[in-house]
Design brief:
about 240 residues, alpha+beta, 5 helices, about 25% helix
Length: about 240
C-alpha cells in the first residue's frame, strides 16, 4: 500500500493485522529504549523495526539497529534514509539509498473520523472548508483523518532536512480526490514558513500521494534530489 505511493527506488515493507504487533527481536540498544514501555508500545516498536530490517536486506544491506534520535525521528545507518509508521493493525518502513532522494516521509492511520476537536487544532479555516467540500462530494473517505495523516508525512519529510519542528498550521494542505472508482490521490502542502534548501533549490511546498484501502489511510512524500540548476519550487 505504501510502496505504490513512492518512487521505484524506494523499498517498502509492510505488516498487517497480528503481524503488525509482534515481539520481533531487538538489538540490545533498542531493547533499552523500550525497557519500561507497555507491551503494546514495545511490540509496535519491534514490529516496525522488523519491517525496516527487511527493507535493509532488500537494499542489499546488513540489518542494523534503528534508534530514535531528536524528536523521536529514526537515526538511519549511514548510506540510507527512510521513514516508518505504525497504527493499530498496520506498520511499515520505507527505505532508499542516500542520493536517490533527499528525504521521504510516510504515515498510516485507521480509516475513521478524527476525534472531536482535533481537526480544529491541526487545520486552518481554509483547510477545514476544503475538507467539508470533499466530504460532501466523496463521503466514502474520512478527509479529516487523511489531512492529519498527510501533514504527518510532510513533517517526517521536513524534519531530516531542517532539524526543526513544523507546526500543523505552518503548512497549507490541499488534497486531490481520486479518479472515478479509484482509491488513490495526491496532495500538496504549501509551506507558510521558510522551507529548506535542497541543493540550490528552495523547497516551498511538498507534494505527496495517498491511498484509502483495507480500513487504512496511507500517505507518502518523496523529496527529489535536484539535478542541475532546478528552479525553486516544490519537492
Amino acid at each position: 500500500m505504501i510502496g505504490e505511493l513512492l518512487p521505484e527506488a524506494v523499498v517498502a515493507v509492510e505488516a498487517y493485522g497480528a503481524d503488525a504487533a509482534v515481539d520481533a527481536p531487538l538489538y540490545p540498544e533498542e531493547r533499552a529504549v523500550v525497557a519500561r514501555a507497555v507491551d503494546k508500545r514495545r511490540r509496535e516498536f519491534a514490529s516496525v523495526r522488523q519491517c525496516a530490517r527487511h527493507a535493509m536486506e532488500k537494499l542489499g544491506l546488513d540489518p542494523r539497529p534503528v534508534l530514535p534520535g531528536e524528536r523521536g525521528a529514526p537515526r538511519w545507518p549511514e548510506g540510507i534514509l527512510g521513514s516508518m509508521t505504525h497504527c493499530t493493525g498496520y506498520c511499515a518502513a520505507a527505505l532508499v539509498r542516500a542520493g536517490e532522494l533527499a528525504s521521504l516521509g510516510i504515515d498510516a492511520e485507521p480509516h475513521e473520523a478524527l476525534p472531536e476537536g482535533v481537526l480544529g487544532a491541526v487545520a486552518a479555516p481554509a483547510e477545514r472548508e476544503r475538507v467539508s467540500a470533499l466530504s460532501a462530494a466523496h463521503p466514502s473517505v474520512h478527509w479529516d483523518r487523511l489531512l492529519f495523516s498527510a501533514k504527518e508525512a510532510v513533517y517526517k519529510a521536513w524534519f531530516p532536512l531542517t532539524g526543526r519542528w513544523l507546526d500543523f498550521l505552518e503548512a497549507d494542505l490541499e488534497i486531490r480526490p481520486p479518479a472515478v472508482g479509484g482509491t488513490t490521490g495526491g496532495f500538496r502542502a504549501t509551506l507558510l514558513v521558510e522551507g529548506p534548501r535542497v541543493g540550490d533549490r528552495l523547497v516551498r511546498a511538498f507534494d505527496g500521494r495517498w491511498a484509502a484501502r483495507e480500513g487504512l489511510l496511507a500517505t507518502a512524500v518523496a523529496v527529489a534530489v535536484p539535478h542541475g540548476n532546478a528552479p525553486e519550487g516544490t519537492a
